[in-house]
Write a structure and sequence with these properties.
single chain, alpha+beta, Endonuclease, Chain A, 4-stranded mixed sheet, 3-stranded antiparallel sheet, 13 helices, 38% helix
Length: 306
């Protein structure tokens, strides 16, 4: 049997490619029927057993359909966002600008949408929903609490030393504006409700859960990223707390288990305590019980501060 000719490296590098792209690379339709090639859907192919991910598949579709972009969970994956755990799409998702028809492919889940300037931007030449648009698109399936958690993730201020960026993925103003642009979009009512409790300053989902547990228990909403000395850029910082009654609250998750971080945590706690603050620390056991014990402790401390 004649050995199949090697595919052009540029075509292989795409991960998933269309019949049109193969022909433009001088690969014949007959070559695509050889055993080393898998037909994923009508007009789309990949090397057999390559197992392309959702972003790679959606990217190929967007290259070949005008006015189409990666959206929803796939847009979030393409942008490196931490999506809610409940998001587990069976297929990649793409959207196409109305009135264009959806790609008729079993390979993807398609949506028709109307977007305004700023809701879609390019990632290496491929259009994708911006983070704020992803949040709004996910409102069709997320709960209000999940939208708050995801919103907190998008608007938090990153630390350049650890994440290589200084700007948040989105701002509360972005989320508010996009919501106002699409008053009849599925899930927009939940998105509006979530907006009331999205805050800048939560560095993890558990920190958001702790804040919401305090608020839902009827306690005052805590301030986030509470500096011991607001005028000192090197001041110790608590995850959240109440400045006037001097109550600092921290959630110590898995990243706090290293010896170096534990040393920093001890110094932080000591600084707040010496300054006359009460310092409450929560962990995963507290999270497992919905922070019930922590809420009780904070309630007692606030009552004793009146």
């Amino acid at each position: 049997m004649r050995t199949a000719s090697a595919l052009p490296p540029a075509l292989v590098g795409l991960g998933v490619f269309s019949l049109t792209e193969a022909v433009l690379a001088d690969v014949s339709p007959e070559r695509l029927r050889r055993s080393d090639i898998e037909r994923l859907a009508q007009g789309f192919y990949a090397l057999r057993d390559s197992e392309p991910d959702h972003v790679t598949i959606a990217t190929a579709v967007c290259r070949n359909y005008a006015n189409t972009w990666m959206s929803g969970p796939t847009g979030g994956m393409a942008r490196g966002l931490t999506l809610p755990e409940s998001i587990a799409p069976a297929r990649p998702e793409v959207s196409r600008q109305r009135p264009g028809n959806l790609p008729r492919l079993a390979l993807v889940t398609g949506h028709r949408a109307q977007v305004k300037l700023g809701e879609v931007s390019r990632i290496e030449k491929i259009p994708a929903s911006t983070p704020a648009r992803v949040w709004l698109e996910l409102a069709r399936s997320l709960t209000v609490r999940e939208l708050i958690e995801f919103g907190d993730h998008l608007v938090r201020i990153p630390r350049k030393a650890y994440e290589g960026r200084e700007e948040p993925f989105a701002t509360i103003a972005d989320l508010t504006r996009f919501t106002s642009w699409h008053p009849r979009m599925t899930g927009v009512d939940r998105a509006r409700d979530a907006l009331q409790l999205i805050r800048v300053g939560a560095d993890s989902v558990k920190e958001t859960h702790l804040r919401l547990a305090l608020v839902e228990a009827g306690l005052p909403e805590p301030e986030l990223q509470v500096k011991l000395d607001p005028e000192d850029p090197h001041s110790p910082v608590a995850d959240q707390g109440y400045r006037r009654p001097r109550i600092a609250i921290d959630y110590d998750g898995a990243t706090h288990l290293t010896a170096e971080q534990q040393s920093r945590d001890i110094r932080r706690s000591r600084a707040f305590t010496l300054a006359g603050w009460r310092h409450v620390t929560a962990n995963r056991d507290d999270a497992a019980e919905g922070f019930r014990t922590v809420v009780g402790v904070v309630r007692s401390l606030l009552a004793g501060s009146v």
